[in-house]
Write a structure and sequence with these properties.
With 344 residues, the chain is an alpha+beta fold. The chain has three domains: 1-50 and 320-344, Hypothetical Oxidoreductase Yiak, Chain: A, domain 1, CATH 1.10.1530; 59-172 and 217-302, Ribosomal Protein S8, Chain: A, domain 1 (2-Layer Sandwich); 173-215, Hypothetical oxidoreductase yiak, domain 3 (Wheat Germ Agglutinin (Isolectin 2), domain 1, 2-Layer Sandwich), CATH 3.30.60.50. The chain contains ten helices and ten strands. Strand 5 (153-157) and strand 6 form a beta hairpin. The longest helix has 19 residues, at 79-97. It is globular. The termini are close together.
Amino acid sequence: MLAFTRDALLASGVPAADAEIAAKQMIEADLTGFDAHGIFRLSFYVSNIKQARVNPKPSMKVLQRAPSTALLDGDNGIGHLVITAASNLALDLARATGVGWVGVRNSNHAGAAGIYPEMIASHGMVGIYAAVSTANHMGLWGSAEAMLGTNPIAIAIPAGKEAPVVLDIATSVASFGTIRQYAISGTQMPEGWVVNSATGKPITDPKRVSEGVLLPIGGHKGSGLALIIGLLAGVLNGAAFGHDVVDATGPGTGASNTGQFVVALDVSRFIAPDVFAAEMDRHLGELRASAKLPGFDSIRLPGEDRRRRRADRSANGVQLPPTLIKQLDELAANLKLEPLGARN
């Protein structure tokens, strides 16, 4: 999957070093179980490059830099590349001052949100990532008009022997990528994901999602969180928000000007890292051992399943649905590449 993704990006005009980075970040989503954000989206990414909606050879620039902050212009590059660069810059700032906040403009969809904070956590720091979604599918609480994205946020906190705590959530009940997967498989959605804009009634057919708005997590609370993320990742960075958001799956070839931000926080500025790691392990162990409500077999900590899935899929491979394999075979034929199934 890594080699196929890299080769597809190379065939689309992406330089070799950039193709390696982008492929690694894309397939990391599949390894950690975020299937709606991995190779599932490769054809979409390639199509956007071919249509000149995404720049395969960006010249990223730091427009402003202070001791703890920076503003990065992604030059309409592949989002995975832009946010990897932003994450590395945030780490550099945090090493010098204790905290690094990097705002991003002129970027694109960057895949699974948790990849970037987890990358920061691997350096012993707390990582935060948030983004304006590349399409509006939610309304502000009570609104029938989709003017907000499913704006994701992810936070990673390092531990010791325990898995890092990694919270990776959309601010909608279901991410739009998950809804796309339902549409491809022809599966009905549960009630409570989408409501009709005119009637307020539930929509369960994923192919009719355009007739309604996605519902936020926690009612007005999730709606408020999506708004705050949009303002900080979009408006603050000079990136798109509200009516300015360009749906990268829609007509036209305009750039999306996606806004994101990455934060790195140096644990050592607050507590000795070994003490922090030991305390994290102690508290996580106590939480896992807490009494369970009826109907629950275990207490789930954010990040545990992520680590387990990565180990399992790295060893045993990733199961891909037949519809996706067919789509990837068509992509291989169009790009004159060896099909995924033919590779060892």
